[in-house]
Amino acid sequence: MQLIKLDATDSTNAYLKDMLLGNTLQDFTVVTAVAQLKGRGQMGTSWVSDSGKNLTFSVLKHYDGLRAVDQFRVNICVSMAIYEALSQINVPDLMIKWPNDIMSGRYKICGILIENILSGQDINASIIGIGLNVNQLSFKNLPDVSSLKLLTGTTYDLDELLFLIVDRLKINLGTIMEDGFEALKHRYGSKLFRKDKPSTFRDGKGELFMGFIKGVSGSGKLLTLLEDDILREFDLKQVRLLF
Length: 243
Hints:
alpha+beta, BirA Bifunctional Protein, domain 2, 37% strand
């Protein structure tokens, strides 16, 4: 793995994408920043992180023959890699909030932004951006956000945690085209936040409705059981899980 450490950058994903222009980078090239000035999350949201207290990094992964229609496999591999790494250090009550936020109890502790580089019907590579709240102790006006230190009382070495997560990424992404991926997908489904619990959602029109999360489809859509036992699929733009 090639590790590039920055004092500050607008976005580690953007920095890694710029590096790819005209350059050949090895698999699992990692860019990490002490301060990320314009971190981004899913659907254009921002990721706010105190300098030097958290992990903000991006990882490059190349593929050979991964179809664009199977892109949610990347989400599953990455989400489960972080879940498994944090399980190793005994972070409590871990769950995955669809599609790929990592939760501890009701608190969000990690966000993931995956940007795929396409060539025709295939994915050539992914730039995997990860923001993990580690040693930060205050999240103003964000009552549903926490950090590993707030949850466990432990101060963590950021480099050790980075290497632990990257090692799990290598293992999980190594199965993305293999038979072993189905077992990983099953584990992902079993760890979904609020699975089989009555939950409130907001649709694209702003209307609220109730349902039960049952799993994810092969394309990564959320399978939700509605009233009258109707099972519907929702993509990220169609629905937001509230609680």
